[in-house]
Amino acid sequence: MLNTPLFADRTQAGEQLAQAIDAILTQQTANSVAKPETIVYALPRGGLPVAAPVARLLNCPLTIEVAKKISHPENPELAIGAVSASGNVLWDQHQRSRHILNSGLRKSALNAATTQAKSLKAQFSSACPQVNTEGATLILVDDGIATGMTMAVAAISLKALSPAEVWLCAPVAPLKLLPWLHQWGDRVVVLATPEDFCSVSYFYSEFPQVETSEALECLLQQNEER
After folding, report:
1. In b/e form, how buried is each residue of 106-124, taking b as 16+ CB within 10 angstroms?
2. 123-154 pLDDT, tens per residue?
3. How many Cβ atoms sit within 10 Å of the Cβ of residue 105?
4. What percentage of the chain's residues is helix, strand, coil (to nearest 5)?
5. Are 175 and 192 in contact (CB under 8 A)?
6. pLDDT tens-digit series, residues 76-123
7. Distance CA 43, CA 68 (A)
């Protein structure tokens, strides 16, 4: 697989994603469907620099939905599930994780991920605007989708808020994952769907860790400008 990045950085990817989402919303309006209230939700921290251009183009609020992967106790890089800060849980049903799903290890792994999710949410809560989700279109954005677990569990949380629709949006995701993603979102918007997929970072020229201060600035700037 040749190293040919698709995006310069998260901001550029977000600008391209914003154009794609806006085109779909514009088409819906042109087809005499009243344009619904739109709210952009980012998965922090990496999703915020991508989501900010989306919220800016759509001129809508930017907020967060926190979800964390549940890591295998003996292999932190292996996700066996995901949990949202609001308490929704989704377990990986693949063979690799079944052997611990009914053990005490599952509970400790879940507790650790839940603590991380709640802590992360607390860091951003003061910068999040008050939003009315009832009947709205909620645009859930991340910088890329690898397994889809955190995106899916975040979508579960958002669907509990009585929206009209929940969209799952990202610059890049594996082609084989798309049918599964459609189970969780009313619409899936992904710019690139490579068949060969090793990691999200592979498709960016620059993919540094997003610091909390940068992520908070994305929130504050978008919501102060509106």
Report:
1. beebbebbbebbbebbeeb
2. 999 999 999 999 999 999 999 999 999 999 99
3. 15
4. 40, 20, 35
5. no
6. 888 899 999 999 999 988 745 455 556 788 889 999 999 999 999 999
7. 9
> From CA 65, how far away is CA 117, in angstroms rounded?
10
Backbone angles phi and psi of 172, in degrees to 5:
-150, 145
Among 214, 50, 21, 224, which residue's Cα sits nearest to residue 129?
224
Would you list the DSSP string of 112-144? HHHHHHHHHHHHHGGGPPP---TTPEEEEE-S-
Q: What's the mean per-residue pLDDT of the chain?
A: 92
Side-chain-side CA neighbours of residue 75 (13 Å): 8
> Residue type at 8?
A
Spatial distance between the Cα atoms of 59 and 40, rounded to a whole number of angstroms = 10
Per the confidence metrics, is the pTM higher than 0.90? Answer: yes
Q: How remote is the C-alpha of 68 from its chain's centroid?
A: 11
- In one-letter notation, the amino acid at residue 117 is A
- List Cα–Cα distances, 141 to 42, 103, 148, in angstroms: 5, 33, 12
